[in-house]
């Protein structure tokens, strides 16, 4: 009989029971390219049939595999081909009908979210792209599980300021239509620069054009595990030792995630796609990326040195994950959402964390300005300026950046928004009140940087 490493077994058990290790999401990516038709009713029927065909056992099998390995699989999700392409085939655009179809079938198969109500417009918009973007506020207000994204920039194409202006209006309108739930519609929308097609995390997940017919992408999470590993070190351990410990921990987390993901993919009889090893926090105590910085030696997230600590954390997580798996993908690094992280919520509430500091941190994290509540009367042009700044960071640094902000209609600095569950709550943060209007209203496209010419 094979000898088991008792220490390793006990260590994994402690990761799960004491430090909130879990599989944050298993996301089934489903191509809908063969659902295109001139009749929207036919499109909706085909979408429903295809999702049912592939995903009807996703939740059941995920729970079985989670029980087998005693590792919680928190979220089960679906990501589909960007709907702007699918709906554009119809004689008349009815994206809202498709949105309801996606939401209804998501409820039918029991998944938590369905992503892909999306458009990729970094270089320009087609008529279908514009129609989908304009439909996003209504679609998110009328559905409960639908998530939406728009890619407005890339390192190869530059930044589409026309699309950013439209997206800024979309965010504001989505918040207004869902103001009774503190702008929940805006919380289910994200805009990107350099979006990735195999991302399993919401709200930005979609099945890219180069993806297979169906695949399973897995997102693991373990900020509590990383914090515990760092806390167990001597407080005088040097930074090289700190980075090595993070790498070793990421290796273990990734190995566990790929084991579960491959088992589930086999059970579903679909290919295993990628493992996204992002440190994704929750509002639960002990499951915070912000608390990792305190374990590193900072008094609180937001202190000088936070960006350097985040850069080291992000790099070490990627290095450890790459050693554990040949199929690391998605975003893979550390997320810094304000409302979804207990430590970030505390720091923002106490004023330790400002909007400008968050923007600086996004230059080295996995995503960008994430789940940040701003005053409800923030002008569309200011929101467009915020987006443009973040897209520029992604474009110049050849990395993915994103903006998911929530204008809190009828509220201002000193108030807070409350979503509950995984989305948590957040204090409303002040934004710069200087006008961006004349700049963003120039419209057009910010050209791609010189390093885009690398063919």
CATH fold name of the domain at 23-193, please? Answer: Anaerobic Ribonucleotide-triphosphate Reductase Large Chain
Total beta strands: 13
Q: How many individual helices?
A: 16
Distance between the termini: 55 Å
Q: What order do the helices and strands follow?
A: HEHHEHHEHEEHHEEHHEHHHHEHEEEHE
Mean pLDDT: 91
Strand residues, percent: 15-25%
Query: Mind telling me the C-alpha Rg?
Result: 21 Å
Low-confidence region ranges: 1-6
Helix proportion:
40-55%
Overall CATH architecture of the domain at 23-193 = Alpha-Beta Barrel
* Broad CATH class of the domain at 23-193: Alpha Beta
Question: How would you sum up the major sheet?
Answer: 11 strands, mixed
General shape: globular
Q: Structural class, from helix and strand content?
A: alpha/beta
Draw up the topology in text:
Blueprint: H1 6-19, E1 22-30, H2 40-55, H3 58-69, E2 73-80, H4 83-88, H5 95-109, E3 113-120, H6 127-142, E4 146-154, E5 158-160, H7 161-177, H8 184-187, E6 189-193, E7 214-221, H9 223-231, H10 239-268, E8 272-276, H11 289-296, H12 306-324, H13 342-350, H14 355-361, E9 368-375, H15 380-397, E10 401-408, E11 416-420, E12 424-427, H16 437-440, E13 445-446
Parallel strand pairs: 1-2, 2-3, 3-4, 4-6, 7-8, 9-10
Antiparallel strand pairs: 1-7, 4-5, 5-13, 6-10, 11-12
Helix pairs in contact: 2-5, 3-10, 5-6, 6-7, 7-15, 9-10, 9-11, 10-12
How would you briefly describe this protein structure?
The chain is α/β, with parallel strands linked by helices and 455 residues long.
